Amino acid sequence: MADANPVEVQPGTTLLLACLEDTDRAALEEALGREFRLLFAKSACEALGTMRAQAPAAVLFNALSPDADALLGQQHRDEGRQNPLVFALAPRNDEDIQVTALEQGADGVILLPASPRLVRAHLENALRSRDAAAARSQETSDQLRFLNDASRYLLAGADPDDSIGLALDKTREYFEGDRAYVFEIDDERELASNTYECCAPGVAAEQQNLQDLPCSTYRRMLDILKAGESICLDGVEAILESGLDENRIFTSQGIESLILVPLRSGGHLVGFMGVDNPARNASHASHLAALGDYMTAILQRRDNEEQILRDNRILRDLMNDMPGGFVQQLVTPEGRTVPHFINEEFCRMSGMSHRECTDFYSADGFTGVHPDDEEMARQALEKLITTRETITVRLRLIRGDGSYVPMQVFYRVTDDRDGNLLLSGYYTDLTEELAAKERAIAERDELTGLPNRTRLARMRTSVYQGLSSCGVLFFDVNHLKAVNDTQGHGRGDALLKLVSDSIRSITDERVHGYRYGGDEFLVVACDSDEAELAKLVERWEEHLGKLAETHDVVATAAVGSCWSKAPFTLNNLIKRADEAMYAEKRRVREHVDGQGGLTAGKGTSS
């Protein structure tokens, strides 16, 4: 885990001796030849060629040589490669020569005469300093590259899981560790899990073995991380002495050293990031800590994206399961509407598969609108864009078989997060509603508002089939023809309305009134007893009397009744009630004038 040793000058390091006097060359060759590999050049041109071919670590040249200017002027022009250190050999008493050499680019000056030991020490220190600076530069470059690459993965990656994996791989590579990993903490359950891991070749993965670990197992370690401090332990003894591995979880995995840094969000510890057995850069735990905020951010982004996906799935399920049709469309700048979500119910209402629906409406959402309704729909869209109110329209949409289905649509326009206009439409199929309205109109008597014989026929074959008992009252308005003939049909209609209103007053969910035709009315009492019929007649007479008194008219009707337990047929009960009514009429022979009618008669058939 220890960092690299201090830089040492390697035996056999190459030196170039250039433009030297024979005596200086001989002295230096004797002083340096045992520890350095020496090259020689008589001129600046030869020296420059040797420097390019052999790449010596350092060059010693005679500052008094006529070629000194050429040598110093050319040697720094080679870019893209490490230039050697250049030392000028200058007389001790000639300061101008020394200054000129330094001004022209010499890395140092060795003053002559000098002892061989001093020259050698001078060179070794200079080379050692240069190599140490190069090592620091490389280290800094490696650090910057590591931080740049890892942060780029975490900040700019499209997929959080992939980005975290790449960042961990870069982290493990930088520290030359066995494993780089992320643990996340579930505070509610007080458990920690290894959620991401990157292993060196040949190193066994531990992620599956490190799931749902009780936080109590790592309590001391977590307390340190919660305080925002990093943990760096070098060696098994350091791990044991720290007291952080009481349960031998680290050492049992072969961990001999490790780095751990906290992952915090809003001052709260949400997890930690670590490297096992780092072989280099172990003192750079701060670089790993610098990635902590980025790692926390991408974990939060991952959770947010997963929540959005869950919410979208739930929303789509809700939209698919909603009882009506739902279509969400993008409104283009040209005013076209292009669907990007169509629920299954809309497809069913349209008589098409989802793919057929999507293909059919892909060019324009108004494609399926009936030609006579399209202008209305487009005007509604223009109004929506301006007012942002919910608008309800009724229009016809085409079905897969070419027919049109009537729809009621609630339209609303909203903006998405990118500023695009979205048109949401909630569709209700009006086919059954309109059919029910038409049926209701067809089954109701226009004059009196009571259900008619058409409604009675439908009830006879449905609701009335399952009754345990049934009673029927048959009404016949007295002297309607005489009133029509002498006072006009308007007066006759008024008489019918009084009788129908009195019949309506005794109906409820179980007792149903009908206009049977002309001056005849029916009441059907479902699951009733026989005595109830007489009570219904009494209530009817009371209401009719009050209405007649209020309108200052005489209004009477003959009534016949019939009751039976199941089994029975409604037609038979009606026939017998009708017969009972006429039997009653024959028993009552009172004379009336053209303005009134007979007192109501009551007949019963059983």
Automatic annotation (TrEMBL):
Show where the GGDEF domain sits: 468-603
What does the UniProt keyword field contain?
Kinase, Transferase
List, alphabetically, the InterPro entries matched.
Biofilm_reg_signaling (IPR052155), CheY-like_superfamily (IPR011006), GAF (IPR003018), GAF-like_dom_sf (IPR029016), GGDEF_dom (IPR000160), Nucleotide_cyclase (IPR029787), PAS (IPR000014), PAS-like_dom_sf (IPR035965)
Residues annotated as domain Response regulatory: 14-127
SMART domains assigned to the protein according to its UniProt record, in alphabetical order:
GGDEF
SUPFAM superfamilies, alphabetized? CheY-like (SSF52172), GAF domain-like (SSF55781), Nucleotide cyclase (SSF55073), PYP-like sensor domain (PAS domain) (SSF55785)
Q: Gene3D superfamilies, alphabetically?
A: 3.30.450.40, 3.30.70.270, 3.40.50.2300, PAS domain (3.30.450.20)
- Locate the coiled-coil region(s) and give their ranges: none
Q: Name one Pfam family in it.
A: PAS_3
Query: What processes in GO biological process is this protein linked to?
Result: phosphorelay signal transduction system
- Name the domain of life this protein comes from: Bacteria
GO molecular function (one): kinase activity
UniProt cross-references to PANTHER family, sorted A to Z: BIOFILM ARCHITECTURE MAINTENANCE PROTEIN MBAA, DIGUANYLATE CYCLASE DGCP
Q: What is this protein called?
A: PAS domain S-box/diguanylate cyclase (GGDEF) domain
